[in-house]
Specification:
Strand order of the largest sheet: 1-4-3-2
Structural class: alpha/beta
Protein name: VOC domain-containing protein
Organism: Acidihalobacter prosperus
Number of domains: 2
CATH topology of the largest domain: 2,3-Dihydroxybiphenyl 1,2-Dioxygenase, domain 1
Radius of gyration: 19 Å
Number of strands: 8
Largest sheet: 4 strands, mixed
Distance between the termini: 19 Å
Number of helices: 4
Oligomer: single chain
InterPro entries: Glyas_Bleomycin-R_OHBP_Dase, VOC_core
Helix content: 25-40%
Length: 183
């Protein structure tokens, strides 16, 4: 089983220098480290949670043009990027201590999303220059019994809305992927 997910994601951003300042402030607040290409071959700035222990990271590079994104339009491309939070408190503190004081557009304030998975808690916001939609989210490693009960209750409510489902949503949602071909 694969234990690491995405290696990295890189975005082309509008107003590169202003975007770097925003991303520096955001990722700095969250405790990330940063490095850049020194303009060797190309220009990019990167943000990584576990530098120097190489893991997934986010990069930005200057866009050659284009318009600010509008996540509400749900046009083709990445809809949003979810960053891991240590816990709910970090999400609340980030909302109160970074997003609101900096006038960052918050599309959904901190809340539990019981229908997603037990204990799921997140805030959603938009990058002010390019419009990249971000989520800072926490999923507990071991959810509390009450979070598990809220999750089951939320899924049962959804199930009532879908008489076409012939099994509970926690089973109906699971999909089997084709395996790697055996040679």
């Amino acid at each position: 089983m694969r234990w690491k997910g995405i290696h990295h994601v890189e975005f082309s951003v509008l107003e590169y220098e202003k975007s770097v300042r925003f991303f520096d402030a955001m990722f700095g607040w969250l405790g990330y480290k940063s490095f850049w290409t020194l303009d060797i071959g190309y220009r990019s700035t990167y943000y990584m949670a576990r530098l120097p222990f190489f893991h997934s990271y986010v990069g930005i590079q200057p866009a050659s043009g284009g318009d600010r994104l509008d996540p509400e339009q749900q046009l083709p491309g990445i809809h949003h990027v979810a960053l891991w939070a240590r816990n709910r408190r970090e999400i609340d503190d980030f909302h109160q201590g970074f997003l609101l004081p900096n006038g960052i557009e918050v599309s959904d304030p901190p809340a539990e999303y019981a229908v997603y998975t037990p204990g799921y808690y997140a805030v959603f916001f938009n990058d002010p220059y390019t419009g990249i939609h971000f989520e800072l989210s926490h999923t507990p490693l071991i959810p509390s019994p009450s979070a598990y009960r809220r999750w089951i209750a939320a899924l049962k409510e959804e199930w009532k809305k879908h008489p076409e489902w012939d099994q509970p949503p926690w089973k109906a949602a699971m999909r089997r992927l084709p395996p790697k071909p055996v040679k």
